[in-house]
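Researcher: Re-running this chain for the archive, since the previous output was lost when a drive failed. Same request as before.
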Amino acid sequence: MNVLRRQGTIAVLLIVVLAIMGAGPALGGRVAQAQSGVTWTAEYYDNAYLLGTAKEVRNESGLSFNWGGGSPAGSVPADNFSARFATDTYFSAGTYRFYILADDGVKLWVDFPADKRPTLNTYDAPQPGTLLTADVPLSAGYHHVQVDYREVTGDAYLYVYWDNLADGVSGPSFPIPVQFNVQWTAQYFNNNFLGGTPNVVRSESGPTHTWGTDAPAPGIVADHFSARWIVVQHLEAGRYTISVTADDGVRVNVDGRVIIDEWHGATGQTYRQTLDLAAGQHSIIVEYLEETGLAHITFTMVREPGGSAGPVTATPLPGGSYARVTAWMLNVRDAPVTGNVIAKINRGETYPVVGRNADSSWWQINVNGTPGWVSGAWVEIVQGGGSVSTPTPIPTPTVNYGYGQCPGFLPSRLTPGMWGRVTPGLPNNLRAQPSLSAAWIGQIPGGAPFHVMGGPVCSDNSAWFQVNYNGVVGWTMEGQGWTYWLEPY
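Model: Regenerated structure tokens:
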């Protein structure tokens, strides 16, 4: 980042002074890259087509917005609004690459060409999650840049940036939506609890749907149904934000751990969770509940710019702070969001606070001498918490033995990394966790091959392996008693 970028506003004021003195072009091609110092006039409208009088007019310093499921102003609705952003700023002579990432539609104008056509236009055919670019040659001097934006439903964001190609292309630092390059396995149930065998199983491009009052598939009821979508996707290392909007309930599971659990009636609320993921294959399961009335779900996953996949460091706090549990029972993890559960604590208990993460969404507490993390949504931070509670011991029902022997079962014949198959005959069930009480997510037919990803984990007097069968990741039993149901392939 050059000096003018870091000093944004000062740089723009300096250009104005030098332009008056006739010295503007002498500063070279870096002037318009000081975008943090470009002031935009923003007009926000309560409709999707910039009609009538703007409900909110104000200045914005840079176009980098993520409104999520909210609105940019109190007088503007969260859905079906529009906005216009305009500025006149100095550019040195050169060809500039403009970048836009928007959900939903957008138009970019650089000056107003004779044919009156925008430089970029997805206003009526939105491309959310697609990085839009346009190369525009500009003469030295001031140019008008205008961005028209349209939000329809769901999440709303807008990011705009430009580079002078003569200076080399550094590119924008936008959040990057994950483009799932494999199909999701979709399961639909004629009940509202994902019970039994799914009535419809098919491949879909993702969990995002707007059914209204219609049924989601032939043979599925329009009310009181449930659905599950499963995918395994290779992801780059980084920090990811998952956002899901639903009417009614929704649950999101990443790599076997529930990160969003809102299984209840709702009217289109949006839920978010941010987590760090290492590079590699990751399983994502989205579950949905429909009660009555309208039915819709919107799922997005973006990789944050500059995100870290390393451990979260707690910001230390001064002594004397305590966390009081407000949930009926709360998991304590060894890391925020997706860490392993190391204890369970109960409503009303208090524990000394060690620190917190950057946005205070997770708090690190001291549980009998062991530091652990709890969600900030389920604790109240108080001063002088009094006596420290004793946590409820958490049982350890499973042990990951690696290749070897599980008590009460034959020696395992599989190991992670190899291929196996179900022995010919009956199919094997796939479950979300290594337990007979875990959610059923599919079946592997007799004789069908699969890739072993993890295990064995010992539970229910058998060995369980995490496997990938045709893109569906789940846990399946190796056998029972003196009978193998799985074998090397």
